[in-house]
Amino acid sequence: MPDNPAPLTHKPEWQALTRHRDELAGLAMRDLFREDPQRAQRYLIKGAGLTLDFSRNRLTDETLNALANLARVCGLEQRTADLFNGNTVNITENRPALHTALRQPAGSRVLVNGTDIIPEVHATLARMDTLVSEIQCGTRVGHTGKPFTDVVSIGIGGSFLGPKLAVAALKPYWQGNLRCHFVANIDGTDITETLAQLNPETTLFLVQSKSFRTQETLENSLVARQWFLTHGGRESAVADHFLAVTANVAAAQEFGMAPENIFPMWDWVGGRYSLWSAIGLPIALMLGADNFRALLAGAHAMDCHFRDTPAEQNLPVVMAMLSIWNNNFWGAESHAVLPYDEYLKHLPEHLQQLDMESNGKQVTQQGVPVDYQTGAVLWGGVGANGQHAYHQLLHQGTRLIPADFIIPLKSHNPVENHHAALFANCLSQARAMMTGKTEAEAVRELVNSGMDRPNAEALAPHKAIPGNKPSNILLMEKLTPEALGALIALYEHRTFVQSVIWDVDCFDQWGVELGKQMGNEILPRLLGDENSGTSDDSATDQLINLFRSAHHA
Ligand code: F6P
User: Fold this and answer.
1) What are the CA-CA distances from residue 394 to residues 329, 334, 451, 469 (Å)?
2) Over the stretch 421-451, which tens digit does the pLDDT of each residue have?
3) Whole-angstrom distance, CA of residue 329 vs CA of residue 255
4) Residue 350 backbone class (left: φ over 0; alpha: ψ -120 to 50; beta: rest)
5) Ligand 1: which of 160, 164, 214, 492 to mutate, judged by most atoms within 8 Å of the beta carbon?
């Protein structure tokens, strides 16, 4: 527990930040750059192969110290130790959150209830290696003896988004000719369109579900199984084509999975932190075992950086504290993640679950309602495309939207001057957000281009850009498995640090459950069960009746 029990907004360190914010209110970042030629250098830090330039934020050394003080009195050091040591950090579910253990090297020790979990983690990795090599070498084949050509991962949320991100992001590292598909949605279109591309003799299905209770995943798996059986597969061949990754072995066996085809997950791994476990099988199958281990090594390097580096030099801590600064002190409501790399196109989706499912909370760990904002809306998409779509709102909208620009120094596809142009776009966006353009500058520009002064003055307010908008630039040498591992782990720890400051449980997701519960009540009524009651709201009942008349006329 934090040494200072005062509620967050009553802590002197919080109040010091409020006063400091008021002092900085009239300050323009572009003036800070003008006054201090060392600013860029001072606010550039490195860790685990990543470089963070956070100089384009409304901050001074005093801000950084004040944010580090807040982190200290919120007990960040102890909470970080708790996270790594397997103490109970998921309070409402009474368990640890040990995704960091999944990327620990063999030989290290992490105890859960007195048992070292690292041997089991590495035994599972060894089973994954074997599967990957059997499929790559063709010693494990489909029921008619043909090598596998396609792998279909059926899972949703954390059992989907991380693997989908990593498989797409690391395409230059794919080995062999396997194709990978993801089915997540209960919308029948997802499984139908996927199965339409497949040959049942050469398709391997991975049923990915920590709980093995998720409706979307179980229903899609049943459809896949039926499709397999009606397209030449025998019941006895199901075991050759269906594998499961789950913490609920009994439910998987009940579903028909052979014990040797079930890869373990553990209670102490949260769904949105599970790509490092056997849930990462699609990644290992596409990239090979060595590259999967390189991804883990990159994440482990970030874990060490996070655990061992002082706050002011610590990438996840600095990024989290800047987010607190922008969110709680400057009123930012959302956060844009803008990867300038086509291969990272799924990063915002993964980070959305990671951040919003983790920190979308309204009570403290003790169940007391908070009187401050918690998780921001996270959104984004690849640059430069976004520049021609939503960046307008970043530059001239009324809301404050801090952004993370993410770009590798070198491209996997060096075409003509494309990468330099991409880099120029990325830098120009961060610079434009920071400097903006005053009305006087706009007038001058227009007059210099030949417009008469009255017209220039009339147009200038539309061309003026306020600037002073915060952003970070995250760089890596190249998008390698190690770099991607470090990048994802960086955001995991950023999410955790934010939760420590806000004092919320970032490892539960009770809000998701109500929708699931209500969905289970509504479904039988849509299917025509007359005895399944009514809702106590006419809006739901009316649309249930509409659906029923469309289907049971
Ligand atoms: O519905 C949200 C959620 O509970 C996520 O937290 C989780 O990643 C996802 O569902 C899938 O859960 P499972 O792996 O148990 O099928």
Assistant:
1) 19, 11, 28, 8
2) 999 999 999 999 999 999 999 999 999 999 9
3) 51
4) alpha
5) 214
Backbone angles phi, psi at 421, to 5 degrees: -65, -40
Residue 416 annotated to the active site:
no
Q: Which residues line ligand 1 (CB under 6 A)?
A: 156-159, 209-211, 214, 217, 271-272, 357, 509, 512
> How far away, in angstroms, is 157 Cα from ligand 1 center?
5
Give distance in angstroms: CA of 6 to centre of ligand 1. 34
- The C-alpha atoms of residue 498 and residue 355 are separated, in whole angstroms, by 9
DSSP state letters, 10-68: GSHHHHHHHHHHHHHTT--HHHHHHH-TTHHHHTEEEETTEEEE--SSS--HHHHHHHH
The CB density around residue 398, as the number of other CB atoms within 10 Å, is 6
Q: Which of 400, 116, 170 is nearest to 280 (CA)?
A: 170
184 Cα: distance to centroid of ligand 1 (angstroms): 11
Whether the pTM exceeds 0.90: the reply is yes
Q: What is the pLDDT of residue 3?
A: 47
Nearest to 354 by CA among 383, 333, 375: 375
- Provide the 10 A C-beta neighbour count for residue 218: 18
Starting from the edge strand earliest in sequence, which strands make up the sheet with 203-208, in order? Answer: 179-183, 150-154, 203-208, 242-246, 262-264
Query: Which of the residues in the chain have pLDDT under 70?
Result: 1-5, 532, 553
Residue of 35, 260, 388, 462 with catalytic role: 388
- Inter-axis angle of helices 315-324 and 481-502, to 10 degrees? 40
CA 351 to chain centre: 2
Q: Which residues share a beta bridge with 404?
A: 337, 472
Determine the residue of 90, 92, 153, 156 to mutate for testing ligand 1's pocket, defined as the one with the most ligand atoms within 8 A of the Cβ atom: 156
Note the pLDDT tens digit of each residue in 297-343: 999 999 999 999 999 999 999 999 999 999 999 999 899 999 999 99
Mean pLDDT of the chain: 96
Among 484, 493, 476, 485, CA closest to 317: 493
Contact 516, 215 (CB under 8 A): yes
